[in-house]
Amino acid sequence: MTGPLRPQFNEGQVLGAADLNAQVLYDRLGAALHERTEHIWGVAQGLVLTPKPNTTGSQPYVDIDLAVGRAVDQLGRALVVMAPLRLQVSDFQGQIANPDKAKFYPVYVQAVDLAQVGNTQPGKCSVNLATRYEESVQASFGNPGSELTLLDQALPTVADGLDTTNTPSLSAKVLVGWVQFDPGINQFVGVNTSGENNTTIRYVGVVASDVVAGGGVLTLHTRPDGKRFVLSITEGATGGATLAFGQQDGSNPVVPTFTVDEKGNVTCAGAIAPGVTANTLAESGTVFDGARLPLPTGVADPDLISGKYRVHIALTPPTAQPTTILMPDGSKPLAIPIVERCSIDDNRVVSCSIRWLDITAGVTFGQFVVVPAACTYLIVASGG
Which strand (E) or helix (H) includes residue 34? Predict the structure, then answer.
C-alpha cells in the first residue's frame, strides 16, 4: 500500500468504532499533510506572552498569560488555545535548573491529547471509556539557545504520521516567546519577543513556486492590520504595472517610497546606498574644422548607442589677433577676426571658422573672407 486508506460505507453496513475513527483519522491526516507540505510551521495568530503586573509580594513581579491563538507544529497539527493559558512558576522551576535573572528563556507550546470520559447512557452499563479527545496544548520551557536546535531540525515527511512515533528525535514544539525569571523571588519578571543571536518567533508561511493574484494586484503585508509595510505589484488599466514598497496605516492607501514601473523606471524617495558608481573618462586637445572628435580611450560608439556611456563636449573658440589677410580682390588689408562658427553635430564633426573683416573701409566695413580654423575641445564620457 502506497497511499492513504479512505473509508467507504455501504447501505446496511454495521459501522463499528474502527470505521468511524478511520474517517476521523483520514480527515485529520489530510489536513495535517496539507499544512506539513504546503505551509511552513509556526505561529498563525495570537499566542502572545502577556505580562500582568503583580504587586502582592514583597517585590513586584509579573504573571504571564499565553493569549488565545493558533499555531501549526512541524507535523502539521493545529495547536489551538481557546482561553488564556497561565504559565506556571512550578513548571519553570521543574524544567530549568539554576536560572539566571539576566537571561531570557524560550517558551514553547506543543500538542497533547487529553481523553474525555463519556457520559453513562440510560439502559447501558457504566463504562469508563473515552468518547472525546481534547486536542489541548501544553507550555514548556527551555534553556537559552535551545530554540536554535528547534528551528534547525529536519522536518518530517508525508510518511511520518500524526505523532512522533516515527520521528522520535523530532521536537514538535512551537516557539511563542521568551520569559525572564528572578530566582531571588521565584517569580517571572519579564517577557521578550527575541532571544540570543537575534532569534525571533517563527510565523507560518507558504511553500509555493508560483503565486497568482486573481484581480491584477498582488500584495504582501508585514502585519495583518494597523501600521504596516506593504510590497505590491499592481497592473494598470493601460497594460502597465508598478512594483511599489511603502507604509500603510490600516485600510488607508499605501504611501510608496520606492516604485518600479514596467519599463524599469525607478522612483525612490530616499537615497540609494551605495550610490551608482560611474566611470569617468576624459580626452582633450585641438581639432580642425571638419574633423571628427575622438572618444576617450576605452569608449566606443556602440557604448553611446546602448546607453552604457554618455558624453559631454565643450568647445573653446579660437583666438586670433588682427593681421593682414588676402581678400577676394587680391589685396591684403588689415583685418579683424570674428568667430563665425564653433559647433559640433550629432556625429561629433566639428565646424569651426573665422570671418576676417577688412577694417580699412571704416565703420561700414568692407570685404571679408571666411577661413577654416581650429578650436580646443574637452570630451568627458561617464557611465560604464
Answer: helix 17-38
